[in-house]
Amino acid sequence: MRKNSPSHWAAVDRYFGDLFAAHDEPLNAAVKANRAARLPAIDVSPLQGKFLNVLVQMTQAKRVLEIGTLGGYSTIWMARALPKGGRIVSLEFSRKHAEVARANLRCAGLLRRVEIRVGPALESLPQLKAEGAGPFGLIFIDADKDNNPQYLEWALKLSRRGTVIVVDNVARHGTVIEAKSTEPDIRGTRRCLEVMAAHPRLSAVALQTVGIKGLDGFAMAVVLR
Ligand code: SAH
Ligand code: DHB
Ligand code: MG
Question: What is the phi/psi pair of residue 90, to 5°?
Fold first, then answer.
């Protein structure tokens, strides 16, 4: 294997993953069910799931908001780190994805801690706010990237001082640097990053990740006030 090549990064990811993010039966079953239902294979990686799990513990978040459930793979990792009485609200556009996710969470014994709301997140978010939901301690944004600027604005409305906001897929094989791109995903991600970087209520950073999903990255911010 050539050093510092994509296959080398993937091998290191597997090494770290075996150490820190080994799958048990519920995680294996969830991946299998997602593939059987032909959901797109765009879940976070095992290590990224563990990263979210550790973040829930670091923030001691009792309430977590996820935008983009898919089959609930990332939801399982986060739900497992919740303190007693902790809850996740996860927003998902697709009824089918939500059904698969509910089944996976039920198998993992976590469904009681998770509420999956079906519909466009830009409709569910104002509803959550109107109901007085939140503030959330951790917010994971991982849905349609063109709406990331709007999701960030809603995340701020549902935040308190100390809330951590994580945005997935901010590098997308490096395409994020295409400043003149007309691709909605790239434009949405770049606009979201620009707002995060400049926002007076946020202290923010973005990090590239390499591994089994290739080159990608997370943006993260803590809400200051
Ligand atoms: N967080 C998941 C992956 C989410 S993939 C994991 O790591 O396991 C992105 C999901 O966002 C898909 O299931 C897609 O259906 C959903 N999505 C896309 N557009 C959406 C929208 N407007 N509102 C809510 N969910 C949306
Ligand atoms: C895609 C979306 C994701 O959330 C992800 O983690 C990887 C890929 C996609 O739409 O291609
Ligand atoms: Mg993602």
Answer: -125, 130
Which regions in the chain score pLDDT beneath 70?
none
Ligand 1 atom closest to 147 (CA): 22
Mean pLDDT (the chain, rounded): 98
Tens-digit pLDDT profile for residues 48-59: 999 999 999 999
Among 142, 167, 213, residue to substitute to test ligand 1 (most atoms within 8 Å of Cβ): 142
Question: Which residue blocks in 63-219 are alpha helix, DSSP H?
Answer: 73-79, 95-107, 121-130, 148-157, 184-198
Give the CA dihedral 145, 208, 193, 51, nearest 10 degrees.
Answer: 70
What domains are defined for the chain? 6-223 (3.40.50.150)
**Cα–ligand 1 centroid distance for 82 (angstroms):** 21
pLDDT recorded at residue 1: 86
* Residue among 144, 148, 167 whose CB has most ligand 1 atoms within 8 A, to mutate: 144
Please give the Cα distance from 16 to 58 (Å, whole number): 20
Q: What was the pLDDT predicted at 60?
A: 98
- CB crowding 105-128: b at 16 or more within 10 Å, else e: bebbebbebbebbeeebbebbeeb
